[in-house]
Amino acid sequence: MLQDYKHFVGVNNRDLCFGYTKRLYGFSDYPKDAFNMALYINDDLNNVHKHQEILAKELDFQTENWIIPNQRHSNRVVEVTSKDKGTNVKTLSDELMNVDAMYTYEKDILLGMNYADCTPIFIYSTSDSFIGVAHAGWQGTKLEVLKELLRVYKGNIKDLRVVIGVAINKNSYEVDSNVVDGTWDIPSSAIDIYGDKYLLDLKEINRKQAIDFGLDESQIHVTHYGTEMDEFFSYRLEKGNTGRALGFIGRRSK
């Protein structure tokens, strides 16, 4: 489903766009010539602003229509509207704190979140203008942030489509027993055990959660792209010395 563009992988149709930015062809030093999209790391803000404008032009979705929250690995979901446009885009603020999922029924809004291994999940309806995005690392996945986002939809869930985007793939995501602690439901298809180490598949866990909620497998797409690939940022593999991608979804009125 996701197509390969210069600065992102995703879908960019006349009505609907969603995707995930690459690390390539930028101005930041995280690493050299990186396309960092986060304001909160030690990067020159001018670099981030340049990247924002490049992406805005490539998407044809201007930055004044973007909304970005302050994420905290929670399961808090908020509805945003046109009054929230511009939040945390050019400068950080105290608005939309501790938010790891957003949705709107309005068009001409681009919902964005930053990632560098955690799972971006995009949701849209085929029958109305609903769109949503979630940030699901292991903590958000444990807290079932995806189900919390699905729960706010007012229509028929058969009209929803879920796209599980670029995240670290299972073979590169080793965790300890403090993560796999028996307090949350991890399907056997999403975990491999090697002594006291575990390989965890966050994409698969979120896919199963969507099915448990009532979606059919045909409503869910899981991308093969992973942050262990050279074209994406990986906080884990680069030991924190890296930039952040922007996962985004929006609808246009024309």
Strand order of the largest sheet: 1-2-3-17-9-6
Shape: globular
Classify the beta-strand content into a percent band.
25-35%
CATH superfamily: CNF1/YfiH-like putative cysteine hydrolases
Helical residue percent? 10-25%
CATH architecture: 4-Layer Sandwich
CATH topology: CNF1/YfiH-like putative cysteine hydrolases
The level 1 CATH classification is Alpha Beta
Number of domains: 1
The number of distinct β-strands equals 17
Task: Give a written overview of the molecule.
The protein is of the alpha+beta class. It has one domain: CNF1/YfiH-like putative cysteine hydrolases. Helices cover 15% and strands 28% of the residues. The chain is built from 4 helices and 17 strands. The strands form 4 sheets. It has a 6-stranded mixed beta sheet, with no helix packed on it.
